[in-house]
Specification:
Layout lengths: L4 H15 L6 H4 L25 H18 L3 H7 L7 H5 L9 E2 L2 E2 L3 H14 L1 H21 L2 H12 L5 E4 L15 E5 L2 E12 L6 E8 L5 E7 L5 E5 L11 E12 L3 E2 L5 H36 L1 E2 L2 E2 L4 H29 L5 H25 L11 H13 L4 H13 L14
Parallel strand pairs: 3-6, 4-6
Antiparallel strand pairs: 1-2, 4-5, 5-9, 6-7, 7-10, 8-9, 11-12
Length: 435
């Protein structure tokens, strides 16, 4: 006899109950390799570059590494998958005393640029989203205040920013102006006692929860780029999250709308009077950005090194196969070269010899080499190479926005090309149509 509707419902409910069980813990589902929630030991320093660091820089590395492996590694996949920021870790990151980097005084750590770079790499080694959060806050927002702010502005804002008690963001990019940032259209009009800002910004990290927003706008009187400190509760300011990203998913990138936002005179940064002043900040921040892919590549190599020794196929660990060893060595060679270029950039900066072209070449070349590393890591992990639980898939996706931001590979190449040839080639020649 045909089953009743009640029996059909019972059968459907049983199937639903059977198939809707939560996923197994990855350690149970795949016991042959350790997930990234238990982070692998660091084995990527094949040429002992750690010996080039001062005792203070080595201590920074140990401190940041311990925090990231203990506090961030166990939770990063969950937050990355949900595309949410782990606000619970902000006090722990603040306790590291690395925000503010090279800024001296005002509660900032006054690190060497090498020490700041090493901290960036160690955060990125475990999670690139956390390093981008700190980079936007520290190497863009805080650095702009530190380099271009008045003494009163530094005294007022830097101490709380250094402790991560308040959070900063940095708004330059606009919907119509990414690589061509100097053509930005957001305006600042002088009024009694301050300025009125009108315009729109896009891809601004930390913007949905930042307390202090560094906004770049075109002065309508001089037609030059100025910078302004805007508080999160300013009337007319709106920041909304950009959804559906495939990389740096924990970073809260936002669209900013500025509708007649009033900024008092005391919150205009006096040291930003043209786009050249903005470039001075970007040159330093590009050194830090260059150390992000170094850290990502270190973490991917460490993960693959452990995975290949644990995972067995055909009766042997994957590390025993010649092709896998060759790929692992290729990755290791890239990491050594990337670290050496990054380290040299820091030394040039410390000696006041670094040029904008050198910073741009470092960022672009290092990011390309990191792309090779994560691509090879993706191959080595096979099916698990597409799971965030084993780090490589997440790193593979996270590297893509880093390849693009702070100047795309192409734009940074052209910055270096202009420096070595003396010829700017950013704007294509416009062909005249024949009459």
């Amino acid at each position: 006899m045909p089953s009743s509707k009640y029996q059909d419902k019972q059968s459907k409910d049983a199937r639903t109950s059977y198939f809707n069980k939560p996923a197994l813990d990855v350690s149970t589902a795949f016991p042959q390799a350790t997930p990234a929630s238990i982070f692998p030991p660091s084995v990527s320093d094949f040429y002992h570059f750690d010996d080039l660091l001062t005792p203070e820089e080595q201590a920074i590395r140990r401190k940041v590494r311990e925090c990231m492996e203990k506090e961030v590694a166990p939770i990063m996949t969950k937050y990355w998958e949900k595309a949410e920021f782990p606000f619970e870790i902000i006090p722990k990151l603040g306790a590291l005393c690395v925000a503010g980097g090279t800024i001296k005084g005002y509660g900032c750590p006054g690190l060497s640029i090498t020490g700041s770079a090493i901290a960036t790499a160690e955060v990125s080694r475990v999670d690139a989203s956390c390093s981008t959060f700190i980079l936007v806050h520290s190497s863009l927002a805080m650095l702009t205040i530190g380099m271009c702010g008045s003494s009163a502005q530094k005294e007022k804002y830097l101490p709380s920013l250094a402790k991560l008690e308040s959070i900063g963001c940095w708004a330059l990019t606009e919907p119509d102006y990414g690589s061509d940032a100097s053509s930005l259209k957001t305006t600042a009009t002088k009024v009694a006692g301050g300025w009125i800002l009108e315009g729109q910004k896009r891809w601004i990290g930390n913007s949905t929860f930042a307390d202090i927003l560094v906004i770049f706008a075109r002065n309508t009187s001089t037609n030059q780029i100025n910078a302004y400190l805007v508080m999160k509760d300013a009337p007319g300011l709106q920041a909304t999250k950009i959804e559906n990203k495939i990389g740096l998913r924990m970073v809260q990138n936002g669209d900013i709308l500025l509708k007649k936002v009033f900024v008092p005179d005391e919150d205009r940064l006096p040291g930003v009077n043209s786009f050249q002043d903005t470039n001075k900040v970007l040159a330093v921040s590009r050194v830090m950005v260059a150390w992000q892919p170094i850290g990502i590549a270190m973490g991917v190599y460490d993960m693959c090194h452990r995975y290949l020794k644990e995972r067995k196929q055909f009766g042997a660990p994957l590390a025993a196969f010649q092709i896998n060893q060759q790929k692992l060595v290729h990755m290791l060679g890239n990491v050594q070269a990337m670290v050496l270029v990054g380290w040299r950039l820091c030394k040039l900066y410390e000696a006041d010899k670094m040029t904008i072209g050198q910073a741009s070449l470092g960022k672009s070349w290092i990011t390309v080499k990191a792309r090779e590393v994560v691509s090879l890591g993706r191959e080595l992990l096979g099916g698990n190479g597409i799971l965030a639980d084993f780090l490589v898939a997440k790193a593979f996706c996270d590297l893509e926005p880093i390849y693009t931001y702070e100047g795309t590979y192409e734009i940074n190449s052209l910055v270096t090309g202009r420096e070595i040839t003396g010829i700017a080639s950013f704007k294509p020649a416009v062909s005249r149509s024949r009459m």
